[in-house]
Amino acid sequence: MNMSRNSAKMVRVTIDVDGYRWRVHGSRTGIRWQAHLVELLGGVALDIPLDRKLCKNLRAAVAIALKREASTVNPIREDLVLT
Predict the structure, then answer these.
(1) pTM
(2) Which of 17, 37, 55, 83 would disulfide-bridge 76, Cβ 3.0–4.6 Å?
C-alpha cells in the first residue's frame, strides 16, 4: 500500500486486489470517500471479469488502506476502472 496526498482532499492509494496492483484516485467529502479513477498497473491485461465482485473487493481494500470503515467509502463503479 502506498498513499500520496497532493492536497488536503485528493488522495492516491495503491492496493493489491485479486492478484493485480491498482492505483485508486479519489477524495473525501465530509465523512465519505469517493473514487474518481481506478487504474490497473503493471502493463498487464485483466483476465478476470470486471464486475461487482471485483469492485466490492477494490472498495474493501481502499477502506483498509485509508483505515476507514467500508461503509464510509462509496461503492466503486465499473465505469471508473481503466484496464
Answers:
(1) 0.87
(2) 55
